Amino acid sequence: MMGVVINVNKIPRKIYVSFIKLVGRFNMPWYLKRYVRHLRKYGMDIDGMPQYIAPTATFDGRDYSLIHIGDKTVIAGEVMVLTHDYSIARALEAIGEDMTLEAYFLREISIGKNCFIGARSILMPGCTIGDNCIIGAGSIVRGKIEPNSIIVGGSCEVVGNTLEWARKKQAKGEYYRNASRTH
């Protein structure tokens, strides 16, 4: 029996992505490989291979080339990566500017290597996250986050150093590897 060959170039993009994400819930390696290929096709700069990108993560589709993701990064569920911001339009309107044409910011977002972006975090336009950072769930990230930082919350204050935190957890053995306890 011959296999069915589907030309993915003829499938509407939205349907293709929805299919990939649906299958990803059951076969993560299959999903991740295809989803990363899809994101690269639309211009996203992905260095190496992410460890995980949740099917529910949202990337601003205005200009994928403004998004940079480092190798071995994890992007958890419902994370929003925004390269555009229409707040300037509201501010200009408030001072009486004619807003027949909307105004907006369009800025790059860079996520370093080996980062963890917690569930429901929002990465705002122009933010840069250094290597080895941990972004706590629900954080709103703006500006530059130095490498090895741990940040949490809406104000995204630095609450620790990734290297110190990792050494502490390593000493206590409070983590798992390959689904089995390390200590």
How is this structure best described in words?
- By secondary structure, this protein is α/β, with parallel strands linked by helices.
- 25% of the residues lie in helices and 25% in strands.
- It has helices at residues 13-24, 28-41, 87-94, 162-172, and strands at 45-46, 52-53, 58-59, 67-69, 74-75, 80-81, 84-85, 105-106, 109-111, 116-117, 122-123, 128-129, 134-135, 140-141, 144-145, 149-152, 157-161, 176-177, 180-181.
- Strand 18 and strand 19 form a beta hairpin.
How is the biggest beta sheet arranged?
A: 6 strands, mixed
Rg over CA atoms, rounded to whole Å, is 19 Å
Strand content: 15-25%
The overall pLDDT, averaged over residues, is 83
| Class inferred from helices and paired strands | alpha/beta
**Total number of beta strands:** 19
Helix content estimate: 10-25%
Salient structural properties:
alpha/beta, disordered C terminus, 19 strands, six-stranded mixed sheet, five-stranded parallel sheet
